[in-house]
Specification:
Low-confidence stretches: 1-9, 206-213
Strand order of the largest sheet: 2-1-3-4-5
Structural class: alpha/beta
Number of strands: 12
Shape: rod-shaped
Largest sheet: 5 strands, parallel
Radius of gyration: 41 Å
């Protein structure tokens, strides 16, 4: 028969509990089943000689697959009581129970099957060698299948709990829009997710062969890893190279290196140190988590791409307006760069600084509606012409107003207010001092500086000394004195920008 084999078992034996007050029954059962094999696994026997002892064994021993249970022992219903206790009090629904009795009249089969959760009922006299084998085989096969279902249920439960942890972790890191903050948040969540203390997140550089830099850029690190000042140790580099070349994740001793590609082409690599093993469930959770991270990573890069595209479109539109007025093609670029210079010098946040830099080129967008006769007049404008020219800030604001995009909102403010003056004598609203948005006050300084330093249809370029003198003269009246002083203090940097973007 297929379940008989002389081969040595490769897996732990099936654990069988024999409960009977007759020692001979124990010996006969063991002898009869000595060569039994199911899936290469033999039997391991545990013995109890009373109902009370059976309860002790069941409470103590784990993994008992099958119980051969005598009915009549110290009492006439001892076996039935053990079956009831086992299912109801112990809560063991998995172990298979085969009830054996030498006195069938003491426990009628029909009543036992109806009232007790047992799996088979046999009279001892009918359990010859063949029936004992087939009964054991059927009971153990049922136990095996039940345990597979339970393992699947537990795995599903654990996976669900793990996914809940993944979702909770992802909810935090997906809020990050800056790549470095995102990477740091990711590591903190991975450490919490897998209950570790040390980790590192890297990404592949795009052009390391050209730049001569290391292939890997460390985005974030927690704990003491083999990296000193961004330099990776040879052993860790070897592990990273293996993951990159083979595009796989692998456990090297106590160091797990995870490889997670994304559509940007810049794969992420996750290093976890102090890992004894990565279970299949943890590996799956990590895969789910990092797949989401890869999407978020791509979204951050996509957001950056959209922002850059937005900024370039604004810059090119600004170029169109300036070229119509015959001003230098690089006026809007110089102005944007000087705005960034002043914002940084004033301590403005990086996010605000970049919004200002990208929005500044739209300051004169309203001139798109100014007639050529006014816009291109080489001499001084008369009163009527000046009134037409003064309309361009309001026109610019009307073009850009209503957008919820930070860049366009900033551009609308700058377009509307960059001709306001610090003392309130400007137009179109006559705003005073800090009632003028700081973006517009910075843009005004940058615009005046660039207009004076370069030739226009109505004037020649001024020498630097005269420009500085004029800026100081109008500081506090036309221009915000804070930003005038910052420009003069950083004059070399501003002049370098002029040379970088000449007309």
């Amino acid at each position: 028969m297929s379940f008989l084999s002389s081969a040595s078992p490769k897996l732990p034996p099936w654990k069988v509990l024999l409960v009977d007050d007759e020692p001979d029954i124990h010996d006969i059962t063991k002898l009869t089943l000595s060569r039994f094999r199911l899936e290469g696994r033999a039997l391991s026997f545990v013995h109890a000689y009373s109902g009370a002892e059976a309860k002790q064994v069941l409470a103590r021993e784990e993994g008992i697959a099958l119980v051969f249970l005598d009915v009549v022992m110290e009492r006439e219903d001892s076996g039935l009581e053990v079956a009831r206790w086992m299912r109801e009090d112990l809560g063991n629904q998995f172990t298979r129970i085969v009830l054996r009795t030498g006195q069938p009249g003491q426990a009628p089969e029909e009543r036992v099957i109806v009232n007790y959760d047992i799996n088979d009922y046999k009279e001892k006299t009918e359990l010859d060698r063949t029936k004992l084998f087939t009964t054991t085989f059927a009971a153990l096969r049922a136990y095996r299948d039940i345990m597979k279902v339970e393992e699947a249920r537990q795995a599903q439960l654990h996976y669900r709990e793990g996914l809940e942890r993944v979702i909770a972790a992802s909810a935090h890191i997906f809020k990050q829009r800056n790549l470095r903050d995102f990477a740091s948040g990711l590591l903190q969540q991975v450490v919490a997710l897998l209950r570790l203390e040390t980790s590192m997140l890297l990404r592949l550089r795009g052009a390391s062969a050209i730049t001569g830099e290391q292939d890997y850029e460390i985005l974030a690190q927690i704990g003491d890893l083999d990296a000193d000042g961004g330099m990776l140790s040879p052993s860790l580099l070897s592990q990273l190279d293996h993951a990159k070349s083979n595009k796989i994740s692998r456990l090297h001793g106590d160091t797990y290196v995870g490889y997670f590609p994304n559509s940007s082409g810049k794969a992420s690599l996750l290093v976890l140190k102090g890992v004894e093993e990565i279970s299949d469930l943890d590996a799956q959770l990590l895969e789910v988590f990092c797949s989401g991270v890869a999407i978020a990573f791509d979204n951050i890069l996509l957001t950056q791409e959209i922002t850059d595209t937005q900024a370039e479109l604004i810059l090119r539109l600004g170029d169109v307006v300036e070229s119509r007025s015959h001003e230098g093609g690089n006026h809007v670029r110089r102005m944007a760069e000087v705005c960034q210079l002043l914002a940084q010098a004033s301590g403005m946040s990086e996010e605000e600084t970049m919004v200002l830099r990208h929005a500044a080129p739209m300051h004169d967008i309203g001139k798109i509606s100014t007639p050529d006769a006014v816009l291109l007049k080489p001499g001084k404008l008369d009163a009527a012409e000046w009134e037409i020219m003064k309309q361009h800030p309001t026109v610019g604001m009307s073009i850009l107003d209503g957008s919820q995009r930070p860049l366009l909102k900033a551009a609308a403010v700058i377009a509307h207010q960059h001709h306001e003056k610090y003392d309130g004598s400007g137009y179109p609203q006559g705003l005073v001092g800090e009632n003028i948005h700081k973006y517009a006050r910075i843009a005004a300084v940058a615009d005046v500086f660039d207009a004076l330093m370069h030739k226009r249809c109505y004037k020649d370029a001024w020498p630097l000394a005269r420009v500085v003198s004029y800026l100081r003269e109008v500081s506090g009246s036309h221009l915000d004195p804070q930003y005038v002083e910052l420009l003069i203090a950083n004059l070399d940097a501003a002049l370098a920008l002029n040379q970088r973007f000449p007309d």
